[in-house]
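Methods: example folding runs. The two proteins below were folded one after another, and each record is reproduced exactly as written to the output file, sequence line first and structure-token line second.
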Amino acid sequence: FIQMLRSAKKRDVLQLLRRAPEEMLPFVVEAAVAAQSVASLAALSDFLDFSKEPKSLLEKFFYAAAFSPRPSGELLHLVLDKLDGKQLAPEVQETGTVAIGSLVGKLCQQKLCGLQQEVERGVETILRGLRDAKDESEVVIYLLALGNAVLPETIPTLLDHAEEGPAAVTTAAISALQRFPTQHISSKVKRAMRRIFHEKRKSYEKTCRLAAAEILLDKEPLPMDVINILLAANELETETATFLLLKVQSSLR
């Protein structure tokens, strides 16, 4: 079906979308995203009316885009255009934002970061949304998007939120940092993770401290960090201490 869509003209894909039975429409939308031809994306652009379509169909569109294994710049352009300046239901906006991060990350993996204007626009959309976010839940969504993008230049932003944010924000920022390859976990990142785990600046929830310890133990651990984490484990409850001990044993193996 996808192969057929790749060779179809825009008017034919659009007619297919308009005539598809309601229960088949999500499947056709997903297939049109997967086809990623100029015609199929143009047809989707014309067909998807964000002021009328049910939330479930719009979310299906964003999920299909986010999980596309080798997305094109044109697909990111379509997602950005459909989100730009629209008043959308919160869950649709959230899914779209996370999809932008996923598309940016995959395009950069294809070495298209500096070659696609849409990538720069996508990154700026996420960073601007993060700056303007008022609610904690909004901040978390934009941090998830940054985690999907895995761009080294966003590490300072993630560190700020990891150390200074409330629990949910700290957890999301550290989770995003965990996704970076070891070469990007610098001494500065490790110093921040030590401050969080050992609670040097303020108290952190257990999940935040454990996530910080995981980065220290998973990304080329230093003997000093292993020793200090084991010593600190003596002060923690049994379940948490056991988790850390297993992490250390796994690293040793």
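Second run, written to the same file directly after the first:
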Amino acid sequence: ILAILRNNEMLTWPEKVKFAIGLLPAIIGGQAYVEAQDGLTVQEWMRKQGVPDRVTTEVFIAMSKALNFINPDELSMQCILIALNRFLQEKHGSKMAFLDGNPPERLCLPIVEHIQSLGGEVRLNSRVQKIELNDDGTVKNFLLTNGNVIDGDAYVFATPVDILKLQLPENWKEMAYFKRLEKLVGVPVINIHIWFDRKLKNTYDHLLFSRSAP
């Protein structure tokens, strides 16, 4: 909080005061209030609370993209309030950590090793053509595009939401659980990783998100 109050480069004091007053209902109302804001976008909630649009432009475009890769006029305010509660209530809630190496080696490999240690199997480059079902609607097997059939006790189907909608068995599409997928829309994201051959001077070891609208 002290860091926010000291930062005069992004927001003016009147903007900070209006933003703080706007957040009071979320602080006082607790989790019940946070959950009730799911129907409002970040932009709608800010205007409803009398927070200047410049606060949204200067702060919440970047924060919205950091959380869900979309803009404040699309993101649910519930997501923002959950994050803000973490920042405000925990001593190190606003700190960010990074892997001490590349993700395949430092993140993915330990997960694979753990699954394998429990008798599981991880298959790469195995594209699913069809999810085949038993008569009771449970998964019978996965049919791969190369013709192989995968049988297992449990499956993890990692795919973008748009592909999942196409792969979903017809029997499942009318189930209430899966009908909620209709409201999910995929967000295209491009990450650019630049590796330098030396330490850059006068830089912060942070991940930066643009405040630009696109």
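Comment on the second run: The beta strands are 128-133, 139-144, 149-150.
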